[in-house]
Amino acid sequence: MKTVRLTMAQALVRFLENQYIAYDGVEHPFVEGVIMLPGHGNVVGLGQALRQETCRLKVWQGKNEQGMAHTAVAFAKQMKRKKIIAVTSSVGPGAANMVTAAATATANNIPVLILPGDVYACRQPDPVLQQIEQIHDLSISTNDAFRAVCRYWDRIVRPEQLMSALLSAFRVLTDPANTGAVCLAIPQDVEGEAYDYPESFFQKRVHRLARRLPEAEALAEAAQVVRTAKKPLLICGGGVRYSEAHEEFKAFAEATGIPFAETQAGKSAVVYDHPLNLGGIGVTGCSAANEIAKEADVIIGVGTRYTDFTTSSKWLFREDAKFVNINVSEFQALKLDAVPVIADAKRALPALLAELKGYRAPYAGEIEGARDRWAKELHRLQHIEYKEGYVPEVNDANAASQTTVLGAINFAIDPEDVAIGSSGSLPGDMQRMWCARAVDTYNMEYGYSCMGYEVSGALGVKYAIGDRDVYAMVGDGSFVMLHSELLTAVQEHRKINVCVFNNASFGCINNLQVGHGNDTLCTELRFRGEDGEHSGPFMPVDFAKIAEGYGCKAYTIRSLPELYAALKEAKTIEGVPVVFDIRVLPKSMTEGYGAWWRVGDTEVSENPRNLAAYEDHLLHVKDAKKY
Fold first, then answer.
1. Where are the alpha helices (DSSP H) in 434-542?
2. Helix 345-355, helix 216-227: angle, nearest 10
3. Structure letter (DSSP) for residue 309
4. Which of 51, 428, 556, 610 can bridge 544 by disulfide, Cβ–Cβ 3.0-4.6 Å?
5. So what's the pLDDT on residue 627?
6. At 331, phi and psi to the nearest 5?
7. Tell me, what's the pLDDT at 389?
């Protein structure tokens, strides 16, 4: 057996260089590159290896560990999980910063490889800088925090251990049913230790993306349930997009006449104006999808996890509704006591359609009626006007509603441009209102709803889509929380468009807070007043100046005409990020359309409004499904 003597870090990089993925006759490298924020723990060992061993891999400089990891998550999401970016940080705070992003990846079933530096495996210099000492267990470090948020976790305490760890890591990263974040903690002394690795370990390795076929018995049982349906409904989940079953899903709906609703992850698998597309479903859904969902007797979920936002905390569907779930994950397929079809959507949908030959959903105008009613409401939301003389406390007199601004952006950008979002009220507005005019143009992280994903994620999307434009929809609260990778975009000459919806508040949570009987508390961006509370004037933050300081092109938007002019001019800009500081009216987002969300109302309170909210809570809980 021929061997080559390499340090553990050099072996790691050489292995990453030679990992490929194959599917549907396509083969390409699986790891695009590494985003690095150097520090003690990765700057010497892994840093040297990246300089020496990289041939194909790109290396980017991160600015904040959470931000750069979110960039990697968004990249993999846009690439339909068929390419990844690895991220590496120092020990201690640098590693801890990535825990949030790892959780974001795992919650959304998105593969990302986390490589945090670690304390010394030999323990001789302990305690080292940034080390946390646990007196009950000296083997614990900051990186143990990743155990709870990763699909696979390992610590490389000997250089030869790297081989089995990497094989396990890539098993998970390339597994459609069980993918997510993978953490390989790399102690800084072991990174530089050498071993005689087999040369065969570094040969080209092709990970074949298996498309699991449905079992005949499962198809027959599922078809039997669907054939009984008088008002069936399809739910298009993220699995449709990740398996690239766009055409198969659309063909199934068209052949059977079954309308479909979209989850956040499934949106843009089919364009918005398809006659069977009911739009977003659930808590952040629109009236069309929720009206049909409430009457549906059979729900066919394709690639969905059935989060509480999709099911309205299991309240949305009829008590006697039956479920058929198509999913590569057995865990997900069995939810809601469904008939499970454990298979890849691209293979399962045509097979189920063949079993249903001749079946046609007996709708008689309900789909068209629901779509027409929503179209009128959508038009209203896109064209809200306030009476002359209305001057809100926080905004300029000409500021528009959030829904009007969102509608304007939607149809001012090109159909092939990608919209990205994550947190606050914008995901609700976007799932309801955003009209995807081309496939795979919607990148919403809503499995974890992580504030700060939007700007970092926009950079990841830009790495994935090349010359097309990406537009991040971000609230002012989320922008303040994390926008570090805006500087990376400047550094890399990557044009990302960041639309900051500036309403001087955490508007979504303020609505939730007040809507359940509470007074405003820490949800508005106000100065502290003379009464000791945050009751003073709203804070006049100039986000355009912040962006200009980084080297971005920035626009201050205070009216719709200014917005249209800025969007038009920005299309001519190349190689520079663009930030739009858009004043929007507070309390001007969309509200629920026949949905409910369980948030844990207060059973005991001195405030009668809290008690009223709790009574409403009890009524909904009584009607919710119990599984």
1. 453-465, 476-481, 485-491, 507-515
2. 60
3. H
4. 556
5. 80
6. -55, -45
7. 46
Give me the pLDDT at residue 418, please: 98
First-to-last alpha carbon distance for the chain, in angstroms, is 55
Which three-class secondary structure string do you get for 350-410? HHHHHHCCCCCCCCCCHHHHHHHHHHHHHHHHHCCCCCCCCCCCCCCCCCECHHHHHHHHH
Cα–Cα distance, 249 to 626 (Å, whole number) = 29
Q: Give the side-chain half-sphere CA count within 13 A for 528.
A: 2
- Fold designation for 383-583: Rossmann fold (3.40.50)
Residue type, 518: N
Q: Rounded CA gap, 467 and 271, in Å?
A: 21
Compute the radius of gyration of the chain from its Cα atoms. 25
Structure tokens, 164: 């089995």
DSSP classification of residue 505: B
| Contact indicator for 105, 134 with CB cutoff of 8 Å | no
Q: What is the pTM of this model?
A: 0.95
- Helix (H) and strand (E) counts for the chain? 24, 23
- CA–CA separation, 77 and 398 (whole Å): 37
CATH classification for the domain delimited by 3-208, as one of 3.40.250.10, 3.30.1360.120, 3.40.50.970, 2.160.10.10: 3.40.50.970
pLDDT score of 399: 79
Q: Are 474 and 501 in contact (CB under 8 A)?
A: yes
The correct CATH number of 216-373 out of 3.40.50.1220, 3.50.50.60, 3.40.50.720, 1.10.260.40 is 3.40.50.1220
Structure confidence at residue 388 (pLDDT): 46
pLDDT of residue 597: 81
- Cite the DSSP H helix spans in 145-215: 161-173, 188-191
DSSP state of 624: S
Closest CA to 195 of 14, 74, 413, 65: 14
Confidence at residue 216, expressed as pLDDT on a 0 to 100 scale:
97
pLDDT for position 392: 52
Handedness of CA 463, 464, 465, 470 (dihedral sign): negative
Phi/psi at 370 (nearest 5 deg)? -65, -40
Q: pLDDT tens digits, residue range 211-227?
A: 999 999 999 999 999 99
Alpha helix (H) ranges present in 196-258?
Answer: 216-227, 238-242, 246-256
| Under-50 pLDDT residues of the chain | 387-391
